[in-house]
Amino acid sequence: MAxxxxxxEKYIKDLKKCAGKYVAExxxxxxxxxxxxxxxxxxxxxxxxxxxxxxxxxxxxxxHLFF
Amino acid sequence: MxxxxxxxxWLDGIKRPIIDVELKLPNNKPHRTIALVxxxxxxxxxxxxxxxxxxxxxxxxxxxRSIAAGGNRFNSVEIPVTIKFNNTEIEARxxxxxxxxxxxxxxxxxxxxxxxxxxxxxxxxxxxKKLMVFE
Lengths: 67, 135
Description:
Chain A is an alpha+beta fold.
């Protein structure tokens, strides 16, 4: 339970570091971060990871656009 | 067989109804991403950068004026796409727009709206248990 909590905390911490950028995720772990999807795909490819989950992490500066 | 999917904890610590989906276009590799299951959205809204990376010529598709929550108006491009979720493939019309602010920071979230996504399922939001049930 404590290990799962630590993993979750690390995941959220990594997400926060990438706020405003795109990330690639595998098994609930952030493996790459970048300004564009292409950049993130290239970083993931260098780590031999095919088809990771790629999404943007909103930067909450002036409010979110859609939610 | 109903599928239960727990909400995902987001940056602000709040658990939200976010799911993993795969976007597919003909003759392209699928793109895996996340999207918010949004009963308040009429249609699906996606980050246009995904489609640019998939090689879509954005100029070939019709532009429309859309309204976001809060009344902000924005231009979007309507692109047909297949959304794959849990072995179900849904033909949808994605309203695509830039999710970046003037400084290039990502600020949006992909949305799965009622018109295309919700009509394929009976979706129950269990706020107490923080999970969604898809039937």
